Amino acid sequence: MTDSSAQQLLAQAQQVCAKKGARFTKVREQVFLLLAKHNGAVGAYDLLDELKALDPSAKPATIYRALDFLSKQGFVHKIESINAFVMCHHFGECNHPVQLLICDDCGQVDEIQSNNFDLALRAMADASGFTISHQIVEAHGSCRSCTAQAN
């Protein structure tokens, strides 16, 4: 992502925080921008190493607090299966169902939204008497590029 695109995303995030009354501190903004510059998923400690270039006193707790805030605001998603984070581009819908396609070869992560999938999952949950409070579905495989290279 280009610096100007990252700055545009930051401006959108700042507006969302202002509307919600959420405090978007300088450290949170720095972590947001670092994450926005990555095309795929990135681990917390990789982000910490990048943050230390800007703030040598940054500690693991610093990055985890910032990522927790960004996640709660709907700006990033945690990918549990690989313990990494990826930028979300649906700021206004922080409670939307999340479906991620994760390439095990190159690390690319695509966020997709399928209302049909969400409805089917919710129907199956309802039939089981289960109430879904938060949804992140992770699918692992190979992206189009990596699949083409393998053939």
Question: How would you describe what is shown here?
Answer:
With 151 residues, the chain is of the alpha+beta class. The chain has 2 domains: 3-90, Winged helix-like DNA-binding domain superfamily/Winged helix DNA-binding domain (Arc Repressor Mutant, subunit A, Orthogonal Bundle); 98-150, Dna Ligase, domain 1, CATH 3.30.1490.190. Helices cover 48% and strands 16% of the residues. The protein has 6 helices and 5 strands; from the N terminus they run ααααββββαβα. α2 (26-36) crosses α3, α2 (26-36) packs across α4 (60-72) and α3 packs across α4. The protein is globular, with a radius of gyration of 17 Å. Belongs to the Fur family. Homodimer. InterPro entries: FUR, Fur_C, WH-like_DNA-bd_sf, WH_DNA-bd_sf. Zn(2+) binds at residues 103, 106, 143, 146.
Question: What is the secondary structure topology, with strand pairs?
Answer:
Elements: H1 3-20, H2 26-36, H3 44-54, H4 60-72, E1 76-79, E2 84-87, E3 98-103, E4 109-112, H5 115-127, E5 136-141, H6 144-150
Parallel strand pairs: 3-5
Antiparallel strand pairs: 1-2, 3-4
Helix pairs in contact: 1-2, 2-3, 2-4, 3-4
Percent strand equals 15-25%
Q: How confident is the prediction overall: mean pLDDT? A: 90
| CATH superfamily grouping of the largest domain | Winged helix-like DNA-binding domain superfamily/Winged helix DNA-binding domain
Annotated CATH topology of the largest domain: Arc Repressor Mutant, subunit A
Counting DSSP H or I runs of 4 or more residues, the number of helices is 6
Q: What is the CA–CA distance across the termini? A: 28 Å
Domain module count? 2
**Low-pLDDT sequence parts:** none
Rounded to an integer, what's the Rg over CA atoms? Answer: 17 Å
Biggest beta-sheet profile: 3 strands, mixed
What string gives the helices and strands in order? HHHHEEEEHEH
Strand order of the largest sheet: 4-3-5
Number of strands: 5
Outline, from the CA principal axes?
A: globular
Q: Regarding CATH, which class of the largest domain?
A: Mainly Alpha
- Structural class given helices, strands, pairing? alpha+beta
Fraction of residues in H or I helices? 40-55%
Subunit structure: Homodimer.
Main location: cytoplasm
Protein name: Ferric uptake regulation protein
InterPro entries: FUR, Fur_C, WH-like_DNA-bd_sf, WH_DNA-bd_sf
